[in-house]
Structures are given as structure tokens and as C-alpha cells.
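dude i think i finally got it to work??
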Amino acid sequence: MNRKKNKRPSSDNSIDRLKILFEFAPDAYYLNDLEGRFIDGNRAAEQLTGYQKHELIGKNFLELDLLPDEYIPKAMEHLKKNLAGLPSGPDELVLIKKDKTKIVIEVRTYPVTIKGKNTVLGIARDVTKRKEVEQELQKAHDELEKRVKNRTRELANTNQKLENKTKNLEETNTALKVLLKRREADKIELEEKVLFNVKELILPYLEKLKGGRLDDRQKLFIEILESNMKDIVAPFIRGISSRFLRLTPMEIQVANLIQHGKTTKEIANIQGLSPKTIEFHRENIRKKTGIANKKINLRTYLNTIQ
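look at this
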């Protein structure tokens, strides 16, 4: 029986161990009654508040001015929960130390019964550095978010400007295409007018002069004049025009009707001539355009070189 009693841990030893754990815990441990008066605290509680234990015992947080006014309602809520037998926290409070410096603490409270008395066990730790880091991280996050928003807005504005420039360029390009088409059409019209005037107003008279009685010197002048006329109009007309310069006005009219798909009979009716005459002109056109005795469709050829 004695051996069994000796093996049993004494209650005094258990209490001593608990006191040691309480006293040397890294977090601030404290006990207060249900009116908020301090009953006991460990070394970490002294370090946290800056007060010695004897300065705290018997006083509540209001008497010691441990909390800023705006945090007192939150501390009272903790007491109300403890009175109802409920734990509270974790909650963050600002603690005013003895030297009046302020720190941020994280507090948990638990209702406990010690020697038949209802008391409150509080556990507090300094989280000031953690809060500073959190604030710095939040500040960096807010700054980054602000930069992202600004950059996004800048990119959107740049994109809008590019879209506007693209639209303007497209409109300008369309306008230029219209102008180029108009210019090409005007050029073609001018070429046709130059060719027509040469064929209708100048070459017929040269042909008449060539058919008259001319000496060798006069014939040479006519040939030079005809050659010079071709050189003058050459820069203003297309590839076919230099070939058409050799055609007579009637041959030009026949060639034009051939290009439009008219048959020999239809051309004869239009011109008031016989089909044989039209055939004669067709042969001359083939000779003067260099496709005589070749198996080439005259209409296809004329449309190709136009």
C-alpha cells in the first residue's frame, strides 16, 4: 500500500509544474475577476504591459489606462461573453504600455473556475510587427493594384488611339484608292482623246498629202512628220495605242466594234457598208497589228493588248 502511495504524483508537484508553465509561458498569461480586476500574471505579461505584477493586481484596465477609448467597448464585450460562460477572441486590441508606447496585441479569454471562484484566463501576444508587415504588404498590394489600373487605363487609351489611327488610315487608304482610280480613268480618257484627235484631225490629212504628187524631199518631210507625231503621242497612250496609230479612222471604229463583240454583218449595218468592206478592214487591222496569217482571234487579241 505504501509503495502505491509513493508512486502517485503529489498534487503539490502538479501545482508547482503548472505554476512554472504559467510563469515562463512565451505569451502573456493573466487572471482577472469578472469585474476586470487583475488577480495574477506571468513574466510575459509584465514585459508586455511594462508594469510589475504588484502594480497590476487589484486594478482593472480602466484604472490603469491600458486601452485607448475606442477599444474599451471591445474589451467590455469580452467580459460579457466570459460572464455568460463563453470564451472570446482572438481579437486585436491596441495596448498602452506603462511608458505610453502603443502596441497591437491579440487577445483570447476563457472563463475558468479556480478554488470555487469564477475567473477569467487571458492570453495575449504582441502582434505589432506582424501588423506592420501586413500593412506594408497591403500598401504594396494597393500600390500594385493602382499601377495595374493605371497601366490598364493607359493601354486602353493607347489601344483606342491605335484603333482611331487605323480607322483614319483605312479611310485615307479608301480615299486614295478612289483618287487613284479616278486618276487612272482620267488618264485613260486623256489617252483616248489624244489618240482620237491624232487619228481624226491629223493623220487623215497626212494620208491625203501622201497620196498627192510629192517629190522625194516632200515625201521625206511627210514621213518625218508622221514619225514625230507618233513620238509625241507615245508617252500619253497605252501599249495598243502605238499600234492603233497605224490604223485609219475607219479601221479604229471597226476595231472598237470588234472589241465589243459585234459580228462582221452587224458592223456593216452600223457603218452602212458591205460585209466585204468590213472584211477588208479586218484584214488590214490584222496586218497592222502584226497578227496576219496567225491563228489568233482578233477580238481576243484587241482586248488583250488594250
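Strands lie at 28-32, 38-41, 88-96, 102-114, 117-126.
im so relieved honestly
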